[in-house]
Structure formats: C-alpha cells, structure tokens
Design a protein that fits this description.
- The chain is α+β, with helices and mostly antiparallel strands.
- The chain has a 4-stranded antiparallel β-sheet, with helices on one face.
- A hairpin with a 4-residue loop joins strand 2 and strand 3.
- The longest helix is centred in the last third of the chain and has 13 residues.
- Its main location: cytoplasm.
- It is found in: Cytoplasm.
- Keywords: Cytoplasm, Phosphotransferase system.
- This is HPr family phosphocarrier protein.
C-alpha cells in the first residue's frame, strides 16, 4: 500500500474532479482518498463521490493506493491533486 498526505491548495471545478475520477478508473489498484477532518474515506473512481465531497483549499487529505499498479496510481493522483491551477 502507498500513502501520501497533502493539503488541497486550490478550488476544483466539477469537470476537473470528473477527470480525476476518470483517470483513477484506468488503474487496477484501489484508490482511496481520506478526508482527515471528517474521517471520510472516498473511492477516487466514484464520480459522484468526487463531486459531493469538500475539495476546498486547506482540506487535508490522504491518498491511498493498493494493488498491482499502486505506485503509478499514487503518482498520478497526487500530481493531479497537487498541481491543479484554478
């Protein structure tokens, strides 16, 4: 299992959250995002889940991947979540 904690620094548009869910679904590994404050665990492949949870600046999240391509999955998910510009 790979784990990476980060703080969201940008607001995400709904279309960008859909892109993240779509990219997550291309991996075989389980990809989960934990919202530390609310103790919510989200499947990153769920478009609906991605759209309704609070991805706001200052939100602390932990990205977790587990599976055969977990290293590649966590690298891309972290890049998408950290490098987003509004």
């Amino acid at each position: 299992m790979r784990v990476h904690e980060m703080t969201i620094t940008n607001d995400f548009q709904p279309q960008y959250l859909q892109l993240i869910a779509h990219r997550a679904s291309t991996y075989r590994s389980d990809i989960r995002i934990r919202f530390e404050k609310d103790n919510i665990l989200l499947d990153a492949k769920s478009i609906l889940g991605m759209m309704i949870l609070p991805f706001r600046p200052g939100t602390v999240i932990t990205v977790q991947t587990k599976g055969t391509d977990e290293e590649e999955a966590i690298e891309e998910m972290c890049q998408l979540l950290e490098n987003k510009t509004s």
